[in-house]
Amino acid sequence: MNAKEDIIDLWGAPVMETAVLGRLKAQMSPSAPASSGIRISCKYMSIPAIAHEVNDLRKDSDESAIYGIWDVILNWTFPVTAGYITRPQVSHSFHDGKRGYSDFHTFELGVQPWKLFLITQCKAYKLQSYESVWDNGYFQLREYIRSQHPDRTATSPIYEILAVGQRVSFFLFNPVTQHLHAWRPSAQWALAHHTAHGKRRISKCEMPF
Known about the structure:
By secondary structure, this protein is α+β, with helices and mostly antiparallel strands. The chain has helices at 15-18, 20-28, 48-55, 63-77, 131-148, 187-193, and strands at 7-9, 84-93, 99-109, 114-123, 159-164, 167-174, 179-182. 29% of the residues lie in helices and 25% in strands.
């Protein structure tokens, strides 16, 4: 498994609203009214505090800097006022008795009453060029999801984000195979929603200021 096959460059531009997270939100709440608080078209880099965190990222930034960036992006993109909640450091129990922690779980208020639909895992900037880090992150996310759905059932899609430094990969969990598959919006959706400064590809985007 090459977890770097579908990487999006976070550095310096609002990739997620115009592409992946925007599409994820649209799929989660396709008929949500404009007054619901779900942000489909707004850009996170237009928020000064978020822009500051992204711009302040350096090669020697530790994992906490990446946590900070994704904490604000997730909570602003999926706000509590619209029926979402993002929980940090969620504990998991695996089949072999070991325990692990995923960085962020994002839930939507529903019948359950909370419906998990997104797990985010962060790694330090200095690790982003190591294939083994991407692969290990993929396996971590897969095991976290498997611990949530050991009976191979999932009532709704569950997405995963692997953020390593300034780069990020997105996945979708398949409850039948129990594997994660690289995920991104369709080409038609991406072309319709991309920013004017971005290339017309979601995979390995270079998005300069």
